[in-house]
Amino acid sequence: MAKTPTPFRPLNISVLTVSDTRTIAEDTSGNALIELLEAAGHTLQERTLVKDDVYQMRAVVSQWIADKDTHVVLITGGTGFYSRDSTPEAMMPLFDKTIEGFGELFRHISYLEIGTSTIQSRAVAGLANQTLVFCLPGSTGACKTAWNGILEEQLNASHRPCNFVSMLIGPYESNQHEA
Fold first, then answer.
1. Which domains does the chain have, with CATH numbers?
2. pLDDT at residue 170, as a whole number
3. Helix/strand/coil (H/E/C) assignment for every residue in the chain
4. pLDDT grade, residue 169 (50/70/90)?
5. What does residue 33 show for φ and ψ, rounded to 5 degrees?
6. Cα–Cα distance between 138 and 122 in angstroms, integer?
7. 14 phi and psi, to 5 degrees?
8. In terms of CB atoms within 10 Å, which end of the chain has fewer, N or C?
9. Cα 141 to Cα 171: distance, rounded to the nearest angstrom
């Protein structure tokens, strides 16, 4: 007997850009993520930009993961190998569980696009207080790669054999975290 297809369920997604040089007006990566998530049927919960500073990042993301209405946080920037890149160091202490396969799969897909330069990507993801947090590179192309190659399917309740949605809003809940 075939399983009944699970309908799409929109998620509330916040976008954080980490940059020492860009402003919101110049944030092509954040804009691309917002366009992609909205085109997929999700809702932009909040958006902000902070300098590449561990404590500023943690402050913003801690507020978002404490909000039961935020299901996913997408962070763009600060995942490279330069001395100022500190997004993984800022976020990993907040994770209750690390999604090891995200960084591995991202680098595999990215390798097919940019070759060995992907070795410098430190893209990571985890679950923090029932909120998914994905740390993506700052390039617009890399954000599109992550969305199109991984996130769009994994944030869609109808994707089989599995996805993250039921973990975030449960099988019978509305668009809310469990109380």
1. 12-169 (3.40.980.10)
2. 63
3. CCCCCCCCCCCEEEEEEECCCCCHHHCHHHHHHHHHHHHCCCEEEEEEEECCCHHHHHHHHHHHHHCCCCCEEEEECCCCCCCCCCHHHHHHHHCCEECHHHHHHHHHHHHHHHHHHHHHCCCEEEEECCEEEEEECCCHHHHHHHHHHHHHHHCCCCCCCCCCHHHHHCCCCCCCCCC
4. confident
5. -60, -40
6. 11
7. -105, 145
8. N
9. 33
Q: Minimal CA–CA distance to 23: which of 47, 42, 43, 39?
A: 47
Give dist(CA 99, CA 134) in Å, integer. Answer: 9
Q: What is the pLDDT of residue 81?
A: 87
The answer to whether 133 and 91 are in contact (CB under 8 A) is yes
Query: How far is it, in rounded angstroms, from Cα 130 to Cα 70?
Result: 9
pLDDT tens-digit series, residues 33-92 = 999 999 999 999 999 999 999 999 999 999 999 999 999 999 999 999 888 899 999 999
Amino acid at 127: L
Q: How far apart are CA 39 and CA 131, in angstroms?
A: 21
